[in-house]
Design a protein that fits this description.
heterodimer, A: mainly alpha, 15 helices, globular, B: alpha/beta, Rossmann fold, 2 domains, 13 helices, elongated
Chain lengths: 394, 384
């Protein structure tokens, strides 16, 4: 693919002045790429096939496998929400189960004590989880790497112990709470795995779309910048504390809303479902799949949730197989199964918009020289400009 | 290219595994009776789950050797609930697609709860073995039973024991944990209802402290004849030690949270001697002939190991009642449930006679009274 593109396009590989990451800029002002009708037709056909497959999947799979796919999708969305914090911003956060728990318990408490319809508690669960994240993450946001990791483990443990000890008499202790009323959409009750399949599929689709947009927005680029080099990001005017906190809150809001879905699906919430081990599982999905990559995280969720179930009939050995598979993957693919590709930008879009770009164009006009001969990275828009949101991604 | 290879590998792995799992599930003949066992084979209670599996497989093996149920062999299908609600729901889904007529399990209450609705909707009889939460049998599920006691049974047994001891003044002490408060309230309400006993003190201590002498002095001031402590073993041991150190030899009674060998280690054999506690019997203390035979067979099959707790033996009970129901009315779940509710009376099983009430709870006391002797051993007291 890349080789073919190289024939059409002149390729620049520039090392950013500030960050260690190399960025590829595809210069296309000479030969603009043509999107042939045949290629377009193929992708429309493919996506139609994919949509049809996804919509008819439950009738093919049967209840057990459908329920497994449901679990996979729930974990995929959860892992995508963790991916914002861990994958994009590079914050070692191993306490995601705490936010998930806040959401699930918000729903359970509102539904059992105040008879609030489950669907109405969805935004509330997200908001409360986000608020909780804001409160606990604010004082620790300056911690780096493993220090942050230890503190977030502490958070999930504290939440778990608080839930177990029936805090404020609300959480029902170790046995948790029982949810009696199902989710109801226009009078249709979501009870069977097939109902849940479509409900969760919708959530997954919306999540992927929103997180894809976020990843390519000014916000997403700023998070990536912080991940690559926090000092450089800060020195070029990225408010790192603000963005890190925003990543935490966004991830927590999503995890909280998924807590509602989980609570409605399993019909009972208990502290055991939100243990430290759950956080580790989510962490593993992101690391295994490829931090920062949506497809990678989806694949990670698929593998981590389905493998133990697929090997269910091996009984005791299933976790052994699962563990061995994980070790093997980490040895052979330490960067994750599908790490994110490099960000690509069309240099043509930037021409004339920055001093460097203007210089480039001036050079071209004045000297009539081949602009690809310019290999000085300083002539190209720097990562700092991109992170500041001056350029348009993609 | 590399990505593609890994994707292919992953998909290949998935395919192999799903074929393998189909093959494993398909090797039973149609004439067999399939009974599911849902147990925590992994996770924090893996040891309990392993004992449950061993107990049920041992009984199934013996039954099949003796000719099965009316000539039909019994096949046990084991699924891991991972000591976790989500895994348990998946295990329940899996079992309900594997043609089982009844399911044994499981251990934790919250874990059982996550599977209950699935069995209920798939019309499968469930007999829980270690889930003591009251709520489980209050949902009106006709196909749910359990061979373990409920959380509120212990309070009733404590009240009966105290009444039988013939004391007039009692002090009740808890440690503010949900478990201890629940038990203390149960005992207080039971005693008030029964009448004849005077609660002179109702108080809480802070768990984890080293010095309870202030509490001991305060209690002594109310001059109780017996003390009920509903908390856990470390505090019970410290209390006993500090009471005996001041020469106060008032009898003390506790719940099953003090059934722990460390009670004697912390308190010292001299101070703990004479302490009473109420607890389900330990597997080695089961005194019926059926139970003794079972324990002996268990030990000879599994290299001299004992079941670690009574809950694994309860899984054996669950197996026995299911087999008894199938033997009498066949493997239709509604008929089996009807039989267990109405016709099964005082069925002689491992942990004693079993009957079920209308909610599917076990009738009769599983709890027994233990007394610590002078050398620090826990001695089962005969039934009163």
């Amino acid at each position: 693919m890349i080789r073919r593109a190289a024939h059409q396009l002149r390729r620049y590989r520039a090392r950013s002045v500030l960050g260690p990451e190399r960025y590829v800029f595809l210069a296309e002002w000479r030969n603009p790429p043509r999107s042939g009708p045949s290629g377009l037709g193929l992708s429309v056909g493919l996506s139609l096939a994919l949509v049809t497959m996804l919509l008819t999947l439950p009738s093919v799979l049967g209840l057990y496998w459908t329920d497994l796919v449901n679990d996979m999708m729930i974990y995929a969305v959860l892992a995508l929400s963790l991916n914002v914090i861990l994958g994009h911003c590079g914050l070692f956060h191993m306490g995601h189960a705490a936010f998930y728990a806040v959401g699930a318990y918000t729903t359970a408490i509102l539904a059992t004590r105040f008879d609030v319809p489950i669907l109405l508690t969805l935004p509330l669960a997200g908001a409360l989880a986000g608020l909780f994240a804001l409160l606990v993450a604010r004082p620790i946001i300056h911690l780096r790497g493993d220090y942050l990791l230890v503190v977030t483990i502490g958070i999930v443990e504290i939440v778990n112990i608080a839930l177990k000890s029936n805090i404020f008499g609300l959480t029902g202790g170790a046995n948790g709470l029982l949810i009696l009323n199902p989710i109801s959409i226009f009078g249709h009750e979501i009870v069977s795995p097939v109902d849940f399949y479509y409900f969760i599929l919708l959530i997954l689709a919306v999540t992927i779309l929103l997180f894809y947009l976020a990843q390519n927005s000014r916000f997403g680029r700023a998070l990536n910048y912080i991940k690559q080099d926090e000092l450089a990001a800060e020195s070029t005017g990225v408010n790192t504390a603000h963005y890190k906190l925003a990543a935490f809150v966004l991830g927590a809001v999503w995890a909280g809303m998924l807590g509602t879905v989980f609570a409605a699906k399993i019909e009972t919430v208990s502290p055991g479902s939100f243990s430290y081990a759950q956080s580790v599982l989510l962490f593993a999905i992101v690391i295994l799949g490829g931090p920062g990559s949506i497809t990678g995280v989806l694949l990670g969720a698929f593998l981590i949730i389905s493998l133990p179930e697929i090997f269910r009939d091996l009984q005791n050995y299933r976790m052994l197989v699962f563990g061995a598979a994980m070790v093997a993957m980490m040895i052979f693919r330490p960067q994750g199964l599908m790490p994110p590709g490099r960000r690509r930008y069309k240099v043509g879009q930037f021409l004339g918009r920055f001093p460097a770009g203007a210089a480039l164009r001036r050079n071209k006009q004045l000297e009539g020289a081949d602009p690809t001969a310019l290999t000085d990275p300083a002539d190209l828009p720097s990562l700092a400009d991109l992170a500041n949101g001056e350029g348009k991604g993609r | 290219m590399k990505k593609l290879i890994f994707l292919c590998l992953a998909i290949g792995l998935f395919c192999i595994a799903s074929v393998a799992s189909r093959g494993a599930a398909a090797d039973a003949s149609a004439a067999d009776v399939k009974i599911g066992l849902m147990a925590p084979l992994t996770g924090s209670y893996a040891a309990e789950g392993e004992d449950m599996r061993r107990a049920v497989e041992l009984l199934a093996e013996e039954l099949n050797k003796a000719g099965g149920i009316n000539g039909r062999q019994v096949q046990i299908i084991v699924q891991d609930d991972g000591s976790d609600a989500r895994t348990s729901a998946m295990a329940a889904r899996r079992l309900s697609t594997q043609g089982v007529c009844a399911v044994i399990g499981t251990y934790g209450s919250a874990v059982t709860e996550a599977s209950q609705n699935i069995y209920h909707r798939s019309n499968i009889l469930q007999v829980a073995t270690g889930s003591t939460s009251i709520r489980l049998s209050e949902k009106g599920f006709k196909l749910f039973f359990r061979t373990c006691p409920r959380d509120d049974d212990q309070g009733k047994v404590i009240v009966n024991t105290l009444l039988g001891m013939g004391f007039k003044n009692i002090a009740i002490l808890h440690d503010n944990s949900a478990y201890a408060v629940g038990l203390a309230e149960e005992a207080r309400d039971g005693l008030n209802k029964a009448g004849g006993m005077n609660i002179v003190a109702y108080d809480a201590l802070t768990p984890g402290e080293r010095d309870y002498s202030a509490m001991v002095t305060r209690l002594r001031g109310t001059s109780p004849e017996v003390i009920l402590f509903t908390g856990y073993y470390p505090e019970a041991a410290m209390l006993l030690r500090q009471m005996r150190a001041t020469g106060w030899n008032v009898p003390m009674l506790g719940g099953d949270a003090t059934n722990n060998a460390d009670l004697v280690k912390i308190g010292g054999a001299a101070a703990v001697a004479g302490y009473y506690f109420v607890s389900p019997p330990m597997p080695g203390d089961l005194d019926s002939r059926v139970a003794k035979d079972f324990i002996q067979a268990y030990r000879s099959k599994y290299n001299g190991d004992m079941p670690r707790s009574i809950w694994a033996v309860n899984a054996g009970d669950a197996f026995n009642v299911i087999v008894e129901a199938i033997r009498n009315v066949g493997d239709d779940s509604a008929k089996m449930a009807g039989y267990l509710h109405a016709s099964l009376k005082e069925f002689e099983s491992l942990t004693g006679p079993i009957s079920f009430d209308a909610k599917g709870d076990r009738v009769g006391d599983l709890y027994r009274l233990y007394k610590v002797n002078d050398s620090g051993e826990f001695v089962l007291q005969p039934r009163q």
